[in-house]
User: Fold these one by one.
Assistant:
Number 1:
Amino acid sequence: MSDVMRTTAPEGIKSEYGAAAQGRFKRLWTANAPGYLFLLPWLIGFFGLTLGPAVISLYLSFTDFDMIRSAEWVGAANYVRIATADPKFAAAMRVTLTYVVLSVPFKLTFALLVAMALNKGVRGLPLYRAIFYLPSLLGGSVAIAVLWRQLFAGDGLVNAALAHLGIQGPSWISHPSYSLYTLVALSVWQFGSPMIIFLAGLRQIPTDMYEAASLDGASKFRQFYKITLPLLTPVIFFNAVVQTIDAFKAFTPAFIISGGTGGPINSTLFYTLYLYQEAFGNFRMGYASALAWILVLIIAIFTAFSFLTSRYWVHYDD
Amino acid sequence: MTNGITTAVTAPPSDITKRSFPTSIAIHTLLILGSLLMLYPLLWMVSASVRPENEIFSSTSLIPSSIDFSSYLRGWIGLDITFGRFFWNSLVISILTVIGNVVACSLAAYAFARLRFAGRNFWFAIMLGTLMIPYHVTLIPQYVLFLNLGWVNTILPLVVPKFLASDAFFIFLMVQFFRGIPRELDEAAMMDGCSAWRIYWKIMLPLSLPVLATAAIFSFIWTWDDFFGPLIYLNDMNTYTIQLGLRTFVDSTSASDWGGLFAMSTLTLVPVFFFFLFFQRLLIEGIATTGMKR
């Protein structure tokens, strides 16, 4: 702030008006320059790598662009084709929605159940918590997708285990009816990070609420339904939104398990995988841009819907 | 029951004393079974990587009949370029990403958390907004840009954006932490004529080591595991990261060398596992306080 004082003294020859204007400019500069200097890398990144590309991508979505010839304006043709004449888009949409609708609720249910068990004051909590969290940390890597491919292969570990029970299992990953469920299982296996967030949320609930409820004769189930669940709704809401957006963007496991095809018969054609194929396999960059904006639209609609309905079921403690 | 706020976060709830012995046994049994189920695939992979080749599929057991490290040797040289190269490439990209994220994000976070300037709230809202946008929207124009700069098949498209604070999530994480540092500290320094830069460098950063470490570790792990970015920008095998190498190995061997494949898969998980082992508390606190996605 001392800099501001120093700059207000006008210098000799300049006219009074010029000096005043210059003084004001200098004041503005000294007040704002440090902030913007610290922000500079982010600002460059924002304009050069986010806003600029986003605007260009919106433009490209209305063009035919293959990276060789320059982009050719086609109006809304890409969007019309997506909406009316693209069976692969429909397949990708169906696969992705099925994946989201199955994996998110199962994942959150597991996360909540395990968090509640751990919150009972068990001995060895840090060890259990670490074990349950480990798959979340490793799960995004190719190695785990490779492992999953073997687990659910025709001669894989799951079928070897089933054979002990006298059951002859199919080749899960190469059967179009089952392949998607192996990916759902992979996602549910990684329930560790929502579990940790639930655990932190459960710790916030004052124990005397349960004591009071017990004294009044409320059963454990009633306590869960009337105390735990309502007080945890903000955390449930948060986890549900984050996990859903994440599920819409899933890519690596489907890519590795299907060898990049989304097969068998498009049964694991995640939306992002289809987008990747269109952009970097077929070089239909305009069409892929339109697909990207549809994805934004879907995520935006979902998020807006979540926030709008949240006031009917999310309990915020004031 | 009267020891106040600290109990809420650190100590287990009070019903530890009230629960009967059989209930306790039941909970532990369930948790142990659950843990085994969670760990079984991982342990099985590690055990498969040291198994003699002919034993791999036949056995669901975790204990190999004999320990044999030859899979590691076969896997290491299984492609035209050894996995050493891929490890080195991954390491370089991950370390540069860590540096970029920590430096650029902490600069921006300091501006948002502490400095007063016109439009601060506006830019902060924009920054939060960028967290919601899926990267697919910027993917194609970015690719065209980097292609025209001649950056494809180099690590630049993967690293340079990090020095421009493109992982805005870490800005948010650091802003949260910086706001918790007592303002009196930098106000006193400012009275003494300290510049914003000196306050950032001499006061904020030294007091923020936990959050910087959290950001660094997550940056490393996410970059190490990243598949999509390298898949798009790296096409020359000499530039492959470990994830791309592994994927090429899957495609090239398909079913012929599961031992080598599991050996290399296990190796790629080792660095992440060590971070997990040594910095578990930081990682878990990072997730618990900010709700990180993974």
Number 2:
Amino acid sequence: MLDRRELVRDLLIDRGDLLVVCGLGSATYDVAAAGDHALNFYLWGAMGGAAMIGLGLALARPQKRVAVLTGDGDMLMGLGSLATIGVQQPKNLAIVVLDNAHYGETGMQPSHTFSGIDLVAAALACRFTQARAVSRLEEAAEVRALLHSGQGPLLVNARISHEDTPRVLPLRDGHAIKRRFIAAVDSA
Amino acid sequence: MHTPTNLKTSWPDAIFAHFRRVGIRQVGYVPDAGHSRLIELCRDDPDIADVVLTTEEEGVGLVAGAALGGQRAALLMQSSGVGNCINMFSLLRNCGFGCVVLVTMRGEFGEFNPWQVPMGAITEDVLRLAGFLTYRIEDADAVDDIVGAGCDMAFDGDLQVAILLGQRLIGRKQWTK
């Protein structure tokens, strides 16, 4: 199984003007650990909302690539948004689920994916162009290529270890995160 | 299906004119009889992405994402949908995303279905508690004025504005042919 920090680091190498939406909790810490960036939109709440923020952004900026990096808990809470994205068919949107099959923020209780609920199958059923599972770091380069040039909507379910990782805390001021992001998109 | 009956002006058209004026580019909605005409206008406009949602709270994320990409977005929902959004509304408040929500009211004037009443009765209070400025419209003549002002406040000031379209404006839901 993958180390979440190593995977996210490899996915965000030479990211260029990739727009990144991070789901609350560990996904936000992972993206921050890979290096703070003005084109990161860190979520600290709004659980279940990451994929839809990605959709709004992808529709607003069809010439840019949008990557949503989020946890299995956030994706499960927003499962309906897979269907909504499937209707819209945004070519520039990819979702990476960092799936440790547990709720890390609340004490590692098992999530639905622990019982075999399959997010890859759900994405395919929702007309995602491509959806796949990865579990080895050697696959990171392929996934990174998908984020930058694969035809969306895409979903990658990354089976990561549920080892606890140290928290890396980025900006928490929502207004500041938003303003910084918008300014960076405008100049990207 | 509801058909606008006000002959002087079609209020959904008046709302749509303000969407055009302020440059709304994305509209999220769950299908709704009261909003059917406005949804149709949005769907027919090539400059507007119409995004049909499985639940209203998805629309809150959509608005935030649109704003991050430099676009303005509006949400159309029924009063019951407001209840589905409460936690997600914190995203708008925390980051100061300007947003206009048009809410068709159920569970009030002449409501036939008592199951609509509990949510309809608290919709405006819920919106206020969640940080929205709320305006209520009962009369088609007020639509242009209030929707225009609401859109300006939302997008000039990055505020969350909800406009409640009363059941007297929309018309009672007809349960018999």
Number 3:
Amino acid sequence: MEKTASQPADDAFVLSAKAGDYAAFEQLVSRHERRLYALAWHLTHDHHDAQDVVQNSLMAVVEHLSEFRQESSFATWVTRITVNQALKLLRAKRQRQGPSLDASDDETADFPTPHYIADWRDDPQRALDRREVREVLDQGMELLSEGQRLVFVLRDVEGLSVAETAEAMGISPGNVKVRLLRARLALREHLTQRFGDEATRQHSPGNHDHDHSTIITLAANAASDEGSTPGGKP
Amino acid sequence: MKCQEILKVLNEYVDGQLDPGVCEELQKHLQGCDPCRIVVDNIRKTISLYKDDEVYELPADFKARLHDALKDKWRKRPEQKDSSE
């Protein structure tokens, strides 16, 4: 997991909090709650579940802070707790509701085609207000299966390695890579449809030797290769 | 390297984990191929937009409830060593 630039300050707050200083603990919560809420929301895609996950995770932090040896950063530790809480909740939900619909996620060779190819207009966060950006991001996540969403969030948003993501989800590294590629392509497509600059749009296949329609077939082959080699490099 | 081969190594390239030789070949391709270059750039921007948590504010009522619950839990902790005393 990535270390954050705020780690030295976190370390000082952790020491104070461990010594009993509640104000220091509140500082830690304030510094991380938004990130943890975003993580829980992305993982569960349910407002109540996301709130439960964040609250249970931070309650666990209170309970176990004295045992936290600071061998990893506070950010890493609390992220791990939140991911575990979210996955536990999703597993319990799945048991109640039956197997998820994306069981065949790894077998189908149906990759999203890079269809709308264009440079993005401006920085979306400058051009749109937060609510609008969030709406686009949430819509993108809704296009993914649960398995793709979890892989994308753990791997790309939280920076877990392929091996760590595979272990957390109980799937093979090959499956992580396939789901990740699928998620990245689907989200790229959605966001580019919204943020793409029509003036720079590429109407593939281009006027040179670039037949993008064949990418799909080859990607499917690549995916099935990867899917069959679960011991792939992280 | 041809466009058709890009997706095979796209993940590793975006993650900076591609074998240096293949990476160089891919970069050469991207210099001459706008569609592929744009797809790679779009993916990088997509990831960085999702990584930015700025748009995810905690709902105000939840934030208040959360902080109350944590304070309560903190008070009820078993006796801790308190260096401030």
Number 4:
Amino acid sequence: MRLTPDALIFWQYGFFKINATILFTWILMAILVLGAAFITRRLVTGHERSRWQDLLEIVVTAIMGQIEDVGLQNPRRYLAFLGTLFLFIAAAALSTVIPGFEPPTASLSTTVALAFCVLVAVPLFGISGRGLLAYLKTYVQPTPIMLPFNIISEVSRTLALAVRLFGNMMSGTMIIAILLSITPLVFPIVMTMLGLLTGMVQAYIFTILAAVYIAAATQNNNVIKPSSPAPQS
Amino acid sequence: MDALTWIAVVSIIMAGLTTGFGTMGPALAEGKAVSVALTSLAQQPDASATITRTLFVGLAMIESTAIYCFVVSMILLFANPFWNAAIAAAAQAAGK
């Protein structure tokens, strides 16, 4: 019983190996990049537009709306990073419909890499939004005794992001694999639908948590929206 | 019972108990969260977007502890380092 797609190695030469995770990540990247390049080749602003452009506009506008709801003032700055996170994880979840496709996010390597990107991006956005000293001051924010706890919370929420996504995707694929060997007729389809739902929810959760962490790092002290939570897990 | 059997028995029992007990707490907490969210949705239907989004984020947070227990169970069953080490030692002892 294979726990992650990392174990399925297609080609190996010494230290370098091409396993299923790398292969499917590159396939997803090719689909996303080439699809976006083709659709945005000719963007029009009139009424006669292609449906694909409409689709992309809906997706981009929805992501920008969510980023603004979280409390980030200028959503265009963060749209590239957060939008890419969402699209990659959502595409990985949706692609489980294709038989034989293992979502690369079902491997701990991919999810730790994505969580590490968030770990690096939060201080980057914080420093570029508030300045280095102001950002470092947030670590000693209520009192300097909180300094180790703030650092530990940074590390632990990165770990939580990675393990949450990994656990959800891995359990989805494993349940379907087990059910296919027990009752291969109807039940795997139901579990695939549940896996798709949880995959999309997890993509949304990952993106919104990254946005909330960035908002907590870049908020100016006089513009705090009372309706946006900043969960510390 | 030799060491190999002990490792297998304890791993299997603990894998079952981990997921069994580990999902009870999050299930109760998620039920409470959804019930409070439904109450507040009934009281203020026009804030439903914020409430729904916060509900989903909170549910994912609560769910993650259950996922941690599940991951530990999977490690105990399928990627157990003690079992692998014991199997390697037994193979080496048998091969000598």
